[in-house]
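Write out the 3D structure for:
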Amino acid sequence: MTKKEKALYIQEQLDILYPETPVPLDHEDAFTLLIAVLLSAQCTDERVNKITPLLFAKAKTPQEMIQCSVDEIQAIIRPCGLSPAKSKAIYTLSHMLWKRITVRFQHPLTH
């Protein structure tokens, strides 16, 4: 059995055993899941699920998130740990996503 065949077999078995794997992080859409996953590094899912409602009440889209300062984000997510790095990452990621969204909206046929 080749490595590729073995990998396919393992994937098939996992799909049979776990047809739908629940996501333990509370989220509403791809962006809020992305932020929750970022926050989950070195933090429990339970704590992330307590913090994200506070963060998403303030900003739950990339556009809303970049209206916050890194310090505002950090103040909210501090209980998750590593808040200086995570707050910068959330802000930077939100800015990158917003920029990509606006470029695609302005030139929908070129991207």
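The CA atoms of residues 16 and 42 lie 30 Å apart.
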